[in-house]
């Protein structure tokens, strides 16, 4: 058999590089060379590379054949999963596509993009996801370039229980157009049940780009491009059935907060995680809550309904498939329109009032206060699908092996004197028995990682259950013999009742592993003290740590705490670094880009 010679009119390697390549591959058999080929191509999917492979096998650094860039701006992993699916669709269609996370994107080269597809989630009340903050700031700054040569499409992921639904997607869409970029497709704004819309959108994107982009890939290279070395058999869609081994309350009886230390036994599944990752928990709704809702609506629960193409009793559908503990403005509007209730109908013209009502009134209490009759299938069409809750993992497998530990604040409150509990937190704390089965998966968080260098100092800022990942950090640092200094800033209402994992932190301090700990108790003194106050109070030393290369980590509430902490950090940088507010903001942005300022906020 004669050897086929592939013509390469443009060689993208120097003679020296080519010699190195030949030396590195000398002695490899055909199977090994095929593996190396796929590996090298996989590297291009992790970078914003300007090299594109054409159908003839030639390579070109020309911008005209620049790969399509699929940009993932994810907070909980949904945007990342959708971006991966789209990248795979494009490659299967023979198109050259590069997938990149927003946190790794070289955004100062954005004007070189020719086709840019962004899948963007929104965090909390309209904020950009953590990994996309630097990109977001750049695009909305005066430094943002004209994008007249760029075509784009946006898929926004959001949650209609929040007022600023899909705001990040809307902001990106508006700003890119303002900078001169041309829309390939209209923006899509999707709620938590985004999959049907996403499938339609992916098909449209592929069809549109096939008409726009002439460069395509050989099928063998396309297959290599979508190989993912981090694949696991467990995922959000196919979770591991693990078991609950420990459920321990770690706040005292006098505390008005119920916080649980939860240990999940992963068995011999091989499911692994790194400190900083989250555990996704699929929960089941409370049987008492289901019966109350059925009674209020005049339903038995035995009605047969269709869910995902299968017929099952309504009671089972409500237990396993539908969200009952979180109301939304869309649900209130649906119920008002189908029942004609005058009080709810009046709310529909008051956007702020409607949002507040949905936030403070659970679905069952809305029905109880405004009784009406709905048939079973109509009820399901009103509800949203149940979604897993993500909890920061509070352990390191270097210490706990085949376990994952969680720190769970149990949501408890009253409505009209009736007790209500959070869906997942109530399930973990009250309804799941020890040794009981629980469906879980690991949600990777590459933007919340310990430094590669074990000698690097770390500063951990985590009030309340925000302390969870830092427990995992310390277990990891101790188990691996990391010598870098460690500083914890923790806060909660009371020292005596709310000092989470107190004995462990005292042990770390006594052993010398924890070099410094600052505690903020907001209800123990006449004036309230929070973690941001401790940062300002110790600003001089904090600045010295930062100057010595320390990495900053923040975990906890996104809406207030994280913003207050960032303002305190800006004050420290400005005051002790002798910078203007604008320079301090730029400095903090640089720390973020260098992965020295990382946040896990929710």
Automatic annotation (TrEMBL):
Known EC number(s)? 1.8.1.2
**What cofactor(s) does the depicted protein rely on?**
FAD; FMN
Give me the comment on cofactor binding.
Binds 1 FAD per subunit.
The positions annotated for binding FMN are: 74-79, 121-124, 157-166
Domain Flavodoxin-like residues, every copy = 68-206
- Where the record annotates domain FAD-binding FR-type, the positions are 237-451
Q: At which positions is NADP(+) bound? A: 522-523, 528-532, 564
User: Which InterPro entries has this protein been placed in?
Assistant: CysJ, CysJ-like_FAD-binding, CysJ_Proteobact, FAD-bd_FR_type, Flavdoxin-like, Flavodoxin/NO_synth, Flavoprot_Pyr_Nucl_cyt_Rdtase, Flavoprotein-like_sf
- This protein's pathway: Sulfur metabolism; hydrogen sulfide biosynthesis; hydrogen sulfide from sulfite (NADPH route): step 1/1
Stored Pfam families: FAD_binding_1, Flavodoxin_1, NAD_binding_1
Give me the residues that bind FAD, please: 325, 359, 389-392, 407-409, 413, 422-425, 602
Q: Does the keyword Electron transport apply?
A: yes
User: What family does the entry list?
Assistant: Belongs to the NADPH-dependent sulphite reductase flavoprotein subunit CysJ family.
Cited PANTHER family: NADPH OXIDOREDUCTASE A, NITRIC OXIDE SYNTHASE-RELATED
Its quaternary organisation is: Alpha(8)-beta(8). The alpha component is a flavoprotein, the beta component is a hemoprotein.
Protein name in the entry: Sulfite reductase [NADPH] flavoprotein alpha-component
- Give the source species: Pragia fontium DSM 5563 = ATCC 49100
